[in-house]
Amino acid sequence: MNNRINQKLAEDSKVLSIYFTAGFPTLEDTRKVMLTLQNAGVDMLEIGLPFSDPLADGPTIQESSTAALKNGMSSQKLFEQLEGVRDEIHIPLIVMGYFNAMLQYGVEAFCKKCNELGIDGIIMPDLPLEIYQKEYQEIFEKYNLHNIFLITPQTSDERIRLMDEVSNSFIYMVSTASTTGSNAGFGDEQMQYFKRISKMKLKNKLVVGFGIKDQETFQQATQFTKGSIIGSAFIKHLTENGVDSIPDFVKTIR
Amino acid sequence: MKARNPYLADEAGFYGKFGGAFIPEMLYPNIENLKQQYLSIIEEESFQNKLNDLLKDYVGRPTPLYFAKRMSEKYGAKIYLKREDLCHTGAHKVNNTIGQILLAKRLGKKRIIAETGAGQHGVATATACALMGIECIIYMGAVDIKRQAPNVSRMKMLGAKVVPANSGSKTLKDATNEAIRDWISNPENTHYIIGSVVGPHPYPDLVARFQAIISKETKAQLLEKEGRENPDYVIACVGGGSNAAGLYYHYLDQEEVQIIAVEAAGKGILTTESAATTALGKEGIIHGSKTLLMQNPDGQITEPYSISAGLDYPGIGPMHAHLFESGRAKFVSITDEDAMQAGLELSKTEGIIPAIETAHAFAIFKEMKFKKDDVLVFNLSGRGDKDLQTYIDYFGF
Prior knowledge:
The complex is a heterodimer of chains A (254) and B (397). By secondary structure, chain A is α/β, with parallel strands linked by helices. Chain A has helices at 4-10, 30-39, 59-71, 75-81, 99-105, 107-117, 129-142, 157-166, 188-198, 215-222, 232-241, 246-253, and strands at 15-21, 44-48, 93-96, 121-123, 146-147, 150-151, 170-174, 205-209, 227-230.
């Protein structure tokens, strides 16, 4: 499999990826947020499909998800909004959500739709490796979709190697044992962890997420890795300052 | 080799197509560790000895199997009540928390978290933690904290910290989300005591094993009273389904025993205010388990409703989803109104005020007829003290 994600990862520069919640702040903001982020120089986008019970997320993303659902967001609605997205968005696109949404839409139908719209990858934190391999890997690959796995500081080397074998793009390194939006900054412990994993010389690139909020944390996170993902800090900025101020946020990162 | 019981979990934690562990990677090391160790630990002789001593002297087991003479005369069947309401803390929940606290100690954990809806599981967890001198944090929906003030005070008196869940609908499902998030953030020193047969594998199996004492005792007691181990029917209410799992456990593969599960219909399954999961739910994933759950077509989990906070859960344990799909158990849903009347009837007929959850099971007589010699065992899962205010408001005493 080779798509826009692989092409982006093959470039020299570090990758800045932004997570945003679809249908937030208002239902029809999805495309505007995407376009503004691309124009501000962001390298990759994670489109958050909101879920009522997002176990891996902290309060910021959960609140934006609740608001988006109230606005009327759904899988169906998101796919409608993404019709023709590839006419204007050229950077890699990843859909991030929870597995129940895919299950209800139909896993194959969901993947097919993503492929038609020009989506490059999927992150479902609650779809575990073993079940993915057994039941869904063929479907994802048939529709040229990368499934991105998460690892944490507690994940064993053996399991990381297994994920490295099954993946063909990047591995999402969760920076610290927490839900999204932790605000602690990175200390020695995290830096050691980033370094330790980078020394494993995996075939996949490493992209760090959870806890990146400004230039300092972005630089720390990417010192030993290919890139980093910002979610809660961006949602927070968006909530407080609105869609038009998105370029200001991106400027504070790099 | 003994054939596998088709109604219990397989190695990956599946009951038919239900169950498994649909968890974010952040939870994997904890769940995997538990999965690797729980069976060998709880089967150790020294563990069993400790557990049995505590169940006997602290919890007050065995609980009686009581022949309800006046109810039997009224309904023309032999009605037995398994008196879990006589357990310490007033419900079956403590069977599980005592088992899990011993397990947590063996795993070297120093901190316990739990979710609670009505507060019964929270109280049972806080009790077990006080007994062992272990730190205890209970997540409880902000709405439930207001509704169940006496239980909040009990937990605090037992030394637990009660943390309000302010996300979502601020009820049991959200308290569970918050407990899981806590576990994600504290992966090393913390054990999560789930209160029902829900959540990722191995929890449904683990909790069912600790509750199985209910049917183990029932078999011996019924043999003494009726000359046979197997009744014709076992009947229990199902929210997540832990008391039901305990009563059914040793009868699952005894096909002549009919299994009846009673769900909360709330204001009726045709209204938007109900918690009857098998009637209204569809296959999906909640709290790390594939099961039947109430959701909209987009897969968003919907808010359940029942007058009883303990049945107010949008899913059911995967074991029960499988019992439903396979036809092994018959599921019936009972409205608030019928449950409240059944609770009043049991109080006046037998002198036992049941929890409102439990009262749902006794409304079965509205839905089913039994033969004269049928032997029925009900799980009297909890006492009604905690529900007194609801009863008072409802009946205007």
